[in-house]
Design a protein that fits this description.
heterotrimer, A alpha/beta, B alpha/beta, C alpha+beta, A: alpha/beta, Glutaredoxin, Rossmann fold, Ubiquitin-like (UB roll), 5-stranded mixed beta sheet, 4-stranded mixed beta sheet, 40% helix, C: alpha+beta, 2 domains, 44% helix, 12% strand, elongated
Amino acid sequence: MNYRSMVLVSGDPRSMERGAREIYDQFQREINALELENEVSLAWMQDVGRSDAVPLAVVYPEATIYGPLKLEDVHTIVEEHLYKGRIAPGLQAPVRELSGHIAWISARQGTLPAEQRIILKRAGLIDPTSIEDYIADDGYQALANILANMQPKEVIDQIKASGLRGRGGAGFPTGLKWQFVASTPGEQKYVICNADESEPGTFKDRVLIEGDPHAIVEAMAIAAYAVGADEGYFYVRGEYLLAQKRLRLAIQQAEEMGLLGEDILGSGFNFKLHVHSGAGAYICGEETALIESLEGKRGEPRARPPYPTTNGLWGKPTLVNNVETLANIPPIMLNGADWYRGYGTEKSPGTKVCTILGNVNVTGLIEVPMGITLREIISIYGKGMAHGAHFKMAQTGGSSGSVIPSTLQDTPMDFESYQENGVSLGSGALLICDENNCALDLAIVLMNFFRKESCGKCNPCRIGTERAYQILKNIAEGVGTMQDLEDLKFLSKNLIELSNCGLGTTAGTPLENILQYFMPEVEAHIKLKVCPTGVCPMSGKKAYPKTKLVQLEQA
Amino acid sequence: MVHITIDGKEIQVPEGTTVLRAAEQADIHIPTLCDHPALTPFGGCRLCLVDVKGARTLQTSCTLPATDNMVVTTDNERIREARKFVLTLLFSERNHFCPYCQVSGGDCELQNAAYEQDMTHWPLQPNWNKYDLDASHEYFILEQDRCILCRRCVRACGELIGNFTLGVEERGADSSIVADLGVPLGESTCISCGACVQVCPTGALIDKKSAYLGHEVQLDKTESICIGCSLGCGIDIYSRDNRLVRIEGNWDASVNHGVLCKVGRYLPHEAENWDRIYTPMVRKDGKLKAATWEDAINAVADQLKQSSRTAAMASTRLPAESLYLFKQLFGDKLQADTVTSIEEGANTKLAAQLAADLGSPFEGSLSELEKADCVLVLGADLVEDHEVASFFIKRNVPHGTRVISAGCAENAIADIADVVLKPSGDNYDNLIQALSAALADKPVTALAKAAGVDEAAVKEAARILAAANFPAIVYGEALLKNASLNTLKALVELGHLSGAIGEQRNALVSVKGKANSMAAAQYGLEQAMEISDEQAVFIALGDDCPSQKLIKRLENVPFIAVQASYSSQLTAHANVVLPVTDWTEQEGSYLNLDGRLQTAVQPIAAPEGVLTNAAVLEKLAAALGYHLDAAGWKDELLKRVPVAIITE
Amino acid sequence: MTPDNMNVLEVVRGVVEEHGGKAEELIPILNDVNRTIGYLPKEALEEIGRLVKTPKSKVSSVATFYTMMTTKPRGRHVIQFCESAPCHVAGGREVWLAIQDQLGLEDGETSEDGKWTLITASCLGLCGVGPIMLVDEDMYGNVTPSQVPEILARYS
């Protein structure tokens, strides 16, 4: 059924107390009365963190929150919003500070074409603080089955057969990684869930953990069993306090039920999970930097080889997987590798959680099969460019991803196709920019991010990002030279080639892309001292953020 | 073993060797900056990048372990471009004003690396930020403008010394070398060992005293040993125009592997402020007057001939050859009532006695301390008197080494100890027996009480010792002060029980006293000096400083003759003063605390008119009509059963 | 905001004890102390180093590495403004300028009266509703420049 709109009514206890049931029924009556039942879907929704506005209803795709609702409001909403297509006046919930829940309010049930929810099946729809909710939806079945009937090697074989690849950005075959750790000799091994999600534009892991923490807990237990670990850590970024809280609760609940701890389900398998908080460092998303941070040190990536699979936490074989990668594990183990291969492409099976951001009509989180194109995503899910503007460039994969021009809009979004075209898929964050965004300005914002997040260990990144930032600022302020372009190319190329870790490498990538695809625009800043989009400070707008740069004499 | 090919050369190296070290073995040069052979690899400067067949990106050879059949290229276009990039960036990061820097022109590793890559200018301009200069430290300067954040200093302070004063604050482009919580070096926990200065590749850390006194190629280098204490650390003495410029640790020396303490590195410069004695002096009419060597020597000889009681004391800073002459003259020939060293056997007599009784050495090697996973320190203030030994312990604490400190006085080692025991009354007998009892599962209560220590602490200490695989025991003067032969016997037993002394190893060591403490012991110079109504006292002081205590003891002695390098209250009070060379102006042999016989090599020519300690003693002997044997010093040294095996 | 010396040490001891006094728990310990006191005063760093047997330079080195910890006192209310690309593209510049206009502060500065500290932050993981600003632990999304005065007015 292809619905064009969706109404979600809050069904948490407080809402029910205040008449949510009646409101829901009224919605149904009103929708039927206007013969919209084939166009508008209606569903229940759990706690969205707006207890000040319950009972409430959220209308998609606009994600408009109406509340607190009285029974008579329902008619207005259906007539104005669903029938006539405009926001019903005076009924919207007041602007308020968001609680952490708001980020996943857009994790709605798939009603739009091509969206397939495997990972986000439950997020936003079940009570994340209830282990019973999870179990009711086949939760912990996979783990129970594995412990009773499968050997670790069989688990790894199944993951390998599924073709699952890492979803944190690197795309490394998951089954292979598990095998490396499993085959490294050692009494003590660890599994780590990398929940340090700090890639700009990425909040999928937050949604997953806040909305469906048990899925990840179960996945960790499965991973530990497969590789031979008995201890695991969630490394959650320090800013995600709610996620940490939800995980701790989930772990406690699982322990109470005997699904974690000693002799799980009587199988003899022991597994203890800890939640460890980060403290504000993007670099700690890098495997070895994460491990350093877990050990109580500065998050500086180690020299590799050796890799964590042989020499990780406290020098022991360690498996590090991203949250989204892990979220795929229970479904694969429940439904089989072949089922999983039914989604996505041959070399990149499965789905990917992407975030659509920027100048499109609808932003948010979607789960799509690998292989969909950017154009499809923008038109179907983003509902087209906002304000009728035209697509200019997009950054795929967060700030460390590639900046692609419109010519690459039709390239399938899977690891291979993107690699062939010299661009990377990364974490799935898609930042769509239109003709009102300046390519140079974007480069500055990106380079600023990298120089602030650089750990400082290796020269190319520590000095290169700072140098590139200052040169870009010079150009934006109208004092750039053509030599600066040569310097930028020199810096970006070597950043990519010579850095110690991915941060330095991916700091150079977007810069290289921008210089490759948007050179005329950048040159205009230098040769004509003009910013074509009117964004850069030379056009008279205040510089942002304030620069510490000293004006250099022109040669 | 692993087979690896570098630039076409096939070599075999043990597993775990890095590509950089393998290349060094094959005499292939790879430029480096953050790497240092004595420190763990860092991999930050990216200068040592090499091309490994099959690897997509260039790899840092300093961290990359060599694997079987690895094929490495160390020089090609790609690598040269990479090196130029790294150096370009480094010069653009901070303010490298080469013309003003003391290491510019050959001693700067950054500059040398750039020249090696045929660089002639900086392709990228710096941003001319302001960086700080910290000149608050007594001995060196930290000039942030020149720092390349290679972190050698941080690693040295932590890995080699275990002091962890230096660290890196902030991250990214704001990274900066800092002391403690960000205080000036002069107010920090720095112990002035100078390891950071020695490893710094640029002029970021500069030794104040030797700055601008010459490039390394202009200096004379003499490999010698420090005689600041009984450890005998290997040093490189840099001198120029017969002047001491700088002392550095010798990385190849077996005792210290390149680290030094303040005493060995910086204190020798203090001598520049002391009054040097250049001419013999004889007291006439109550005043010391310059005299000829002949007159001075005769004055001493005459007095010695007529004195009914004489005492002779030699500093343990004197070389063994001189001590041998001293012993012959005052002991064998003159048969003085007291022939001893300035330590008067306090550090060695008892142990020597035990060795004689046992008929064999019973102490082990200091090098065991470097590998120990548990160290029991009894009655020795390592930090104060034998600081480099304390480095071996401090730097291993982060690797799990446990420390038990048993001492009567406040002790810096106690700060890092797991268990601190303070036996009462300066007496260690009961404590040692309590520990042994605990190790043997025997009752501890009474012994602990007698020792004045907490029983639980003793048991904890014993538990830690028992759990250790490589325990070590270090003891010193404070323990020996009120000890008896039985104390030492009990200590040896504790050594066996704890595993410090075993079939394959012996890790029981006493720190002894000053440089030639052990040689003095071997020559039997260990008497306590009696000076109730001495008529003549001869002190072969050398360049030592007399203690206030000694000066007081000699107050009423009617005749004192001193051979010394520097003026002191003692020389001012003496009847005859004979000028001698100081440690840099003489050559000689030294026996360190665990029996290593080493040679101190002379870097500086002695001033005109000043004689060596040996020469003075020989002159004196001649004046008394004696002939002294010089050659037999070594045989005599080896005669007595030593407390530790003597090696060369 | 200068906390009483005695309280600092008490807070530190409590937090260290909660984490079992282990040296590898340094980061969670620093985090918790920072959150309780508002920043990490020198006495706190020294005491932490002493209790978990870690050298001062290491404690400081770790504390200054992470952005969630600060060794400088902050205002009563801390505004963190996301300056990463998604929020920027969604109109972040204008909101930032509005905040700067209203408070007259540059990035990293604290107001004279000690009420506000304004800092830019890297992506906070709320990109779907950018531009984002955090005031203490309150998150504001889809912020427009006109909403800035209203939001700031809520804090005393």
